[in-house]
Design a protein that fits this description.
The protein has 667 residues and is α+β, with helices and mostly antiparallel strands. It is built from eleven helices and 35 strands. The strands form nine sheets. A seven-stranded parallel β-sheet has the order 6-5-4-11-9-8-7, with helices on one face. A six-stranded antiparallel β-sheet has the order 16-27-17-22-19-20. The protein is globular and about 90 Å long.
């Protein structure tokens, strides 16, 4: 059923795109041949759901002005089919509108249908319901689901079944007779006529698996993504330009910058886990749609220089003389058209400036901890895996149980109370005993599993223990680069999260008590989520308090609301959330995304472009919040009375949230 509906959707999309194409596309060893003309193509990744539709045309035009010939995007299955057979192509999901804007700009489109996309996107683009299709195994040769992307490493993990699956995918794709070539990135044994391509920081070492296929670089990484608790990554444009020039020199004819504009992980689309809401990626066009200088102009000049001799590059072989010691000499240049290490453009310095727009009429609503024992729950013996219960309907799952304490326990008559210990498989945990907040614990990208342990104030009789387990993005997959593992690994759909135990009490008269196998109740999400409290039409569903927010700043699980008017001007906008802890934020019912004021740890020791680049190099922002500002698309705002809703998990001062505007200074 999943496979059939997916093919139907794919064919609809391909048919609509074929109406736009009206051209012949083939290839030979020197490059793609479009309408009989061989050419070098520069492309840039811009993911349509990571920006608002009102930004699309401007982003595409900036890409064209920067010397690009094509736009690259994935297709995000879990956006378009959130439940089986129910499709969504509205708003940021309007793929066809995005494609038509690319055509309007006179550019080509490189469509990566996935539907597995990786991309630091929640569950790698798979809808969570796919995990529960009978007989499913992700990313191998099984009937319930097939179609792939970035499969090389995963294919090896599955052995013969992986190779069979890859071959099936290639045959299926070619059989659709779309009239354009198909590529498989990171797939060394891609069968004819599919073109295998390279992804990475450098691809000058790469050669396709057949001498008659073109040399293509489908992901030239312009920077790197951020994780909550990690530093900000920068890739010097001198190094990126050198890598691209070297690739062209070695016979490359297609380069796609990943990302050219990274954008924003709105809502709960960020995967990982722990991927930030910002997906800026140090791209030539920043998260807010502004050119990042000198990266944007330096690459533009590189593209112009290469295209000056593009005809010769794709129609003749360079004269190369081996000098020994891994050194080569190519045909001398009489005139230097471009030097990858020489900057001609000024550097842009982003500034987040106050708009002086006041947040009016702050009010708050506190979640009732005991409401986790409400009607919408299930009760079983033992601890359940989180995703199997929530099906990703919410980041939050309540685990609640009761603990009987004898009046004769020694700690009740003086001394320290027993220690509650909770082992979690990730990603965050907030603990309450008898309705009072005891504390929190968090995992990291490197160590998703963690243990919460703290002395608790138990009393004689029945005590309640409520554990709020929090998801911070579902796993994606592996993008292995040397010793660094990007996201998750093999069979990521089988990975567990939530409170899997053991959950124990230490320090009782009769030793340690294991609570893991006793009766637990489960409730998905918060009350505010259940009633859509972030929606303008539902805010009257609860009684809001008008007490000063400062008095409520350390209260966990608090909803806050305020109103503000749209500022004048057209500068990009953001919310400064540095006064808050961790949670989610909405404007006029639309989710900005997850926020988390967690401080960056890394190796922030300056940056030079010389030498090989890796994501551990040129880090910035250590000791500061990984993300402080959260993009607010202007198209989401009304002239007046814009509703801001914040759900704070651990405590913060909402009265200090401010709306800022982004501008650029040049040095």
């Amino acid at each position: 059923m999943a496979a059939v509906s997916k093919y139907f959707l794919l064919l609809l999309l391909l048919n609509s795109f074929a109406q736009l194409a009206r051209c012949s596309v083939t290839y030979d060893r020197r490059g793609l041949v479009i309408n009989g003309r061989r050419q070098i193509l520069f492309s840039g990744s811009i993911h349509y759901p990571r920006s608002s539709p009102d930004m699309w045309e401007g982003l595409i035009q900036k890409a064209k002005d920067g010397g690009l010939d094509a736009i690259d995007t994935y297709v995000f299955w879990n956006l378009h089919e959130p439940s089986p057979g129910n499709y969504n192509f509205e708003g940021r999901n309007d793929l066809v509108r995005f494609v038509k804007l690319v055509q309007k700009a006179g550019m080509y489109l490189h469509l990566r249908i996935g539907p597995y996309v990786c991309a630091e996107w929640n569950f790698g683009g798979f809808p969570v319901w796919l995990k529960y299709v009978h007989g499913i195994t992700f990313r191998t040769d099984n009937e319930p689901f097939k179609i792939e992307n970035e499969y090389g490493l995963e294919s090896k993990n599955f052995g013969g079944a992986g190779h069979s699956y890859m071959s099936w995918a290639a045959k299926m794709a070619v059989g659709l007779d779309t009239g354009v070539p198909w590529v498989m990135c990171k797939e060394d044994d891609a069968p004819d006529p599919v073109i295998n391509t390279c992804n990475g920081f450098y691809c000058d070492y790469f050669s396709p698996n057949k001498p008659y296929k073109p040399t293509m670089w489908t992901e030239a990484w312009t920077g790197w993504f951020e994780e909550f608790g990690g530093p900000i990554h920068h890739r010097p444009v001198e190094d990126l330009a050198f890598a691209v020039a070297r690739f062209i020199q070695k016979g490359g004819s297609f380069i796609n910058y990943y990302m050219y504009h990274g954008g924003t992980n709105f809502g709960r689309t960020a995967g990982g886990p722990f991927i930030t809401t910002s997906y800026d990626y140090d791209a030539p066009i920043d998260e807010y749609g502004l050119p990042r200088q000198p990266k944007y102009n330096h690459l533009k000049e590189l593209h112009m220089a290469i295209k000056l001799c593009g005809h010769a590059l794709v129609n003749a072989d360079p004269k190369v003389t081996n000098l020994g010691n891994y050194e080569q000499h190519t045909t001398d240049c009489k005139t230097v058209a471009f030097n990858t290490g020489t900057m001609r453009s000024k550097k842009s310095l982003p500034q987040m400036l106050p708009t002086n727009v006041p947040m009016l009429s702050w009010e708050s609503f506190n979640e009732d901890i005991f409401s986790s024992d409400g009607d919408a729950r299930i009760t079983v013996f033992g601890l359940l895996e989180q995703l199997n219960v929530t099906r990703d309907a919410s980041d939050y799952l309540w685990y609640t149980t009761s603990v009987q304490i004898s009046p004769s326990e020694s700690f009740l008559h003086g001394g320290q109370g027993p220690v509650l210990s909770v082992n979690s498989a990730g990603h965050a945990l907030h603990v309450f005993v008898n309705g009072k907040f005891l504390g929190s614990a968090f995992g990291t990208q490197e160590n998703k599993k963690f243990t919460f342990s703290k002395s608790a104030n138990f009393h004689a009789g029945v005590n309640s223990v409520a554990l709020l387990s929090v998801n911070v993005g579902l796993p994606v997959l592996t993008r292995l680069f040397l010793s660094h593992i990007k996201n998750i690994g093999h069979r990521f759909e089988t990975w567990s999260t939530g409170v899997l135990g053991p959950v124990t009490l230490h320090g009782l008269d009769h030793g340690t008590r294991d609570l893991s196998r006793q009766k637990w109740s489960y409730k998905v999400g918060m009350k505010g989520e259940a009633i859509d409290l972030y929606s303008p039409s539902k805010i009257s569903s609860v009684d809001w308090m008008k007490a000063p927010l400062a008095a409520n700043r350390q209260q966990p699980l608090t909803w806050c609301k305020a109103y503000f008017n749209a500022p004048n001007g057209n500068e990009p906008l953001a919310l400064d959330m540095s006064s808050m802890g961790k949670g989610q934020v909405w404007i006029n019912g639309q989710s900005i995304g997850r926020y988390w004021t967690t401080y960056a740890k890394g190796q922030c020791s300056g940056c030079r472009y010389e030498g090989t680049y890796r994501q551990e190099k040129c880090q910035d922002g250590c000791g500061k919040p990984t993300q402080r500002w959260y993009h607010v698309p202007r198209s989401w705002l009304k002239p007046t009375q814009n509703l801001l809703i914040v759900f704070e998990e651990i405590g913060g001062d909402a009265s200090k949230i401010s709306l800022v505007k982004r501008s650029l200074a040049y040095v």
